[in-house]
Amino acid sequence: MNDSQHFPLSRRHFIALGGSAAAAATLAACGGGKSASDAAGAGSKPKSTFSGAYSGPAVTLSYWNGFTGGDGPFMKKMVADFMKENPKITVSGNTVEWAQYYQRMPAAVTAGKGPDVGVMHMDQLATNAARRIILPLDDLAKSLGLAEDDFTPEVWKAGIYKDARYGIPLDVHSLAMYWNTDQAKAAGVSDAPTDGQAFMAELDKLKSSVKQPFWMPTRWPAHLMFYSLLWQFGGELYAKDGSKALYDSDQGVQALQWMVDIVKKGYSPKNVAQDSQYVGFKNKKLAVTWDGIWQINDLKATKLPFGIAPIPKIGNQEAVWANSHNFYISKQAEKDDNKLNAAKTFIDWMSKHSGDWAGAGMIPARKTVRESAAVTNSTQAPIAKKIESMHFLPPIPGVADISGQTIEIAVADAVLGKQSPKDALAASAKKATAQMEANKKKFGA
Questions:
Q1: Which domains are assigned to the chain?
Q2: pTM for this structure?
Q3: Which residues touch 54 (CB under 8 Å, ≥6 apart)?
């Protein structure tokens, strides 16, 4: 199984295990750690200076990531290439499934047995910054000349927590629309729909090739579809200050009702289990699906004839859920200036060479890299062109844990017909707000 498939599975496992992960993190936080200002160099220890290249003695970096599947070989090759060009730095890799990763990493760092440098999803940065597990990287971004104009405002700002940057974006990965080109051709469909009216018209045509052309899942990635539609209709998930949930708005009801209507109008079976729409698509049981771009290499391996395009603008504006893998440096590395500078050198190199990462089906975060042939000639190129419409979860500590206990359940209940979209979202938002209030106290946010 490639990491394209593994990412959603592991993400679900992480959400389900959120309570124990939080408990482990609480224990880790009790073990001490510097404040953001101390970690940034305001403590008693002199702050090391990064010159842009490593010039110290031979050093070994512990590097953790969750690329356990098909994207793993791409990352391993990049690490190997880095070590060839930087022979004084040995990178000792530890690849852990994402669910285990977020459970184990905080306590491991506090014990001095975790990563010096690593990768985590953008929606985990604020949580681990609040736990004082990772270090501010403003000095690194400045010394490397990294700025918002080489990324997008959404990607760049989502890595900031309490006015400090904690992640250097490697990539972005979003939902996309896939369709079976053979089935589309048989139904007389030639162009990818770009709006809601065209999308529904094409689904009607596709019924001649497959009875139920677009399956609506009850679980993963249904909540990501809801996020995208909510933003398209002009709604928001959460208040920016992390005080409450906002998705039970009229826009949220409108978004979820659209998903429910896909089932009511017969385009989808009534009870589609998580990921079943993707398995069904690979087995040619449906003609169109929305899933992450991490599925590209898996679909290529099946030799399924498919096309890919941005999800249509169902609402009033273009918007799609996305996440991002970000490099971070842990508080473990700050105990050794050589490791700290080696980690910065590693991040710098990986960011500049992120065009190689496009082979894993991802979209490099840096604009200068996205404009290279490695991306413009890639399968995901049509999605990369729409990077400005990608939206991310806000940098609020604990926000990634909330969905599995609230939004995912509300979406499932509505799609299954157990509750109306309005009632499902109202109950869900009330519960989410309570969790957010608890998180503000827990993290001191």
A1: 3-170+324-377 (3.40.190.10), 173-322+406-443 (3.40.190.10)
A2: 0.88
A3: 86, 88, 89, 341, 342, 345
